[in-house]
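User: Hi! I'm working on a homework problem where we have to compare a predicted structure to a textbook description. Could you give me the structure for the chain below?
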Amino acid sequence: MKKIIFLIIFLIKNISFGALEDYTLQDKLQKENIKILQELKVNTIDPILLTDIYSKRIFKYLYNTLFKIDEHGNIIPDIAKEYKYLDKKNLYIKLKENIIFQDKTFLSSTDVKNSLMRVKNKGALKEFYKNIKNIKILNNSELIIELTTEDKYLLNILSHNMSSIIKEKNNDILGTGDYFIENFKKNTLILKNKKTSNRIIITKVFSKKDRILDLYNNNADIIYDINSLDIEKYIKLGLINKKDFNITSDNILTSALIFNENRDLNFRKAINSLLNKKEKFLLPKEIYGTNFDILEDKTHVKNIKKDLNLKNNSLNLMILNTEEDKLYAKNIEKDLKKYGINVKIIPYQVDAFYYNLKNRNFDMAIQHIVFNKKYPEISLGKVILYDIYDKNLYSDLNFYRKKFNNKNDLENKKEIFIETVNEISKKLPYIPLKHQVLYILSNKNINI
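Assistant: Happy to help. Predicted structure tokens:
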């Protein structure tokens, strides 16, 4: 049933909204040490644990995948040399020669099988691998991926960072990328090039202002996680000059009000009907289009106390201790107070916030959900499976998955896709407060 996440793949592959950009450094860097700042720390270097963008950003330096997506959105071979479908359920792949791991051993088809089956069996996003039945090794450089049913989107999944090819050795994870890990401290990861002395230093700096100041003062080369309001603000302050910096994007951030799993649909609808400052669409239109309205149900306003079933007419709202989240929280508090509902705002520092979030230790919370332009279908799947997991949603939508899979022409698939996402919107898994593009700023003397 969880294969509902694949409903979006065919449509997204055939209609796109916005540029499919994935920011990356090229092989030749113009500085010996490249300093990168991002909002949160790198949490993992293990593909089976990959669920966040902060870790995902470094995978391209450490690992390779069988395929990759180029700057035009086309899927092309990476460490695969040749490939072809033998039939609808069997993909033949021949590997490139002389691909070397960090321990100087050569890549083999066994390494590929072990890596992919490891994700299938243990991965945080293993639902994307449900259709892979087996991987048959032909020889040291050739293999066949056997599928349960036809899957036209397999290459897309195999190009994602969760499909990175690795080798486990002495409790270490080795890759075939240009860099290896030289040092991994609490908030800083240092990568060193295998052939040169060049380094990439990735550091967590939570404050947007501090990241921008470091870029302005040449204490950083690249900064992530900056929105359009930040850019406008710091252009006015003279800290950002478009002549000095490259500005690009690869993600859309949705700031959303999420709920504890004990809060049912009526509760979520009731809260939604009382909030003024929110988005019209559940999903960011830059990626998924403008067809999916969140339907208002004003009948909930009349019976608000009954639907909410509150103790002492109060709610707890967990937030990050940032000015942005405080503003969201104040607006929510103001809207609900009009109906006699008190909101207790509970701010946390970043580590404590994400600990409570992971353990679902909250009533309501402001969560920041990330959708990637290059992998919109996997992003949506990750959000449903990992950020706002709701097993009942999969059961309810299984019917639409079957309808989608039984249609062959694009127009019918589009109609079912729209119907499906509208159904997701009706279930209101979260209330979107704001969709905004996340930008990357870099010095123009960096070759990007």
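For your comparison, note the following. Residues 291 and 418 are 7 Å apart (CA to CA). The longest strand covers residues 245-259. Good luck with the assignment!
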